Amino acid sequence: MSLTVDPKKMLELESLIFQKSGLKKEEADTVADNLVQAEMRGIHSHGLIQTENYSKLMRAKKINPHSQIKIVQDGPGTTVFDADHAPGSVAGKIAMAKTIEKAKKNGVAITTVRNATHFGFAAYYAMDALPENMIGMAFTSTGLAVAPFGGYDKVLGTNPICVAVPAGKKRPIVFDAATSNVAFNKIFFAYTEGKSIPDDWALTKDGKTTTNPADVITGGGPQLPFGGYKGYGLDLIVFIMTTLLSGTSVLDGQGDTTAECTDKIGYNFAAIDISRFTNIESFKQNIDITIERIKTSQKREGVQEIFVPGEIEYNNHERQTKEGLFISDGIAGKIRAALEQTEITAKLEDIAI
User: Fold this and answer.
1) What is the pLDDT along the chain (353 residues), one digit of tens a residue?
2) Sheet with 134-140, side-by-side order of all strands
3) Inter-residue contact 180 to 200 (CB < 8 Å)
4) What distance in Å separates the CA atoms of residue 245 and residue 85, rounded to the nearest whole number?
5) Which one of 73, 221, 223, 225 has the minimum C-beta count within 10 Å?
6) What torsion do the CA atoms of 167, 169, 170, 171 make, to the nearest 10 degrees?
7) Are 338 and 16 in contact (CB under 8 A)?
8) Cα(145)–Cα(259) distance, rounded to whole angstroms?
């Protein structure tokens, strides 16, 4: 049964689930915030639908609830972290904070993270640069899910790209998108909700087009890159900038063992201090002018409004802050399952409004 809940109480309930799954409260709060913020922004594929999955992975120690995140390589404007398979949002926040800290000193900084896990929606990290008058970037590799242009073997991830740019009086520009036609979790969301998918999102295991999300979720079919060869090329570049630049090998084992292991997850974060390149107020004003030009440009037939990247998500967040957080049937089921599995007696209905 779907319902609308208090966002703050939802955050507390999610945190409790992750504490019961083995995390310290501070880390559980971060993971919970990641999922709730995604849900508030309307990014359902990376929001509360992940609750049960994250909890299971923590209890199975595949997401390490007792991780020791550490710096393994350090430079004036560069950092490499070993996440020790920590919750992605915990490692990601630490890494992005270090990136911003170094960008304040050096103008530009880049951080990579190895031995990472799923980190949720990329804007969660890139947007941390906005209050510092910086451009923030966040990229991650994922498990193998995407076919190369022209093929149907799963040899790449959905590998998203996010860039957050501060504005003046306008809201920031936040571009956050997978290099696959859609994020894997959008297909998982459709599968959970019992809905079909467009025929350009994925293929069956034997390379045929499909509108059935089960062909991907349970059938092993690959996703497709967006924009044909262009998305495929960007997908490959993100893999290089995250997994490989973080020092992760595509070969697993030692000595004569050369088994391929190309689905290890890595991150890449970057921060650019705009004031090191141009006057910050002039830059923001120009961003505002650019946004206004886009918003007031001529619309094609049937188009009510032109949106800039991130605008719809900001609108969703503002609306649900006022009206409450809507939880669909499928997502509610995942949360209820996690509550039961962690032996929490509290119910979703307790925080309904």
Assistant:
1) 889 999 999 999 999 999 999 999 999 999 999 999 999 999 998 999 999 999 999 999 999 999 999 999 999 999 999 999 999 999 999 999 999 999 999 999 999 999 999 999 999 999 999 999 999 999 999 999 999 999 999 999 999 999 999 999 999 999 999 999 988 888 988 998 899 999 999 999 999 999 999 999 999 999 999 999 999 999 999 999 999 999 988 876 544 455 666 678 999 999 999 999 999 999 999 999 999 999 999 999 999 999 999 999 999 999 999 999 999 999 999 999 999 999 999 999 999 99
2) 70-74, 78-82, 108-116, 265-273, 134-140, 161-165, 173-177
3) no
4) 17
5) 73
6) 70
7) no
8) 19
Q: Which residue has the tokens 């107020």?
A: 281
Cα 257 to Cα 63, 222, 253, 254, 262: the distances in Å are 25, 27, 5, 5, 14
Give helix then strand counts, H and E, for the chain. 11, 11
What ranges in 50-112 are assigned the alpha helix state H? Answer: 51-59, 88-106
Say which amino acid occupies 268. Answer: N
Distances from the Cα of 323 to the Cαs of 32, 40, 168, 332, 353, in angstroms? 20, 11, 27, 18, 9
Buried b (16+ CB within 10 A) or exposed e, 319-353: ebeeebbbbbebbbbbbbebbeebeeeeebeebee
- Find where tokens 């999922």 sit: 35
Q: How far is 257 from 254, CA to CA, in rounded Å?
A: 5
Question: What is the value of pTM for the model shown?
Answer: 0.93
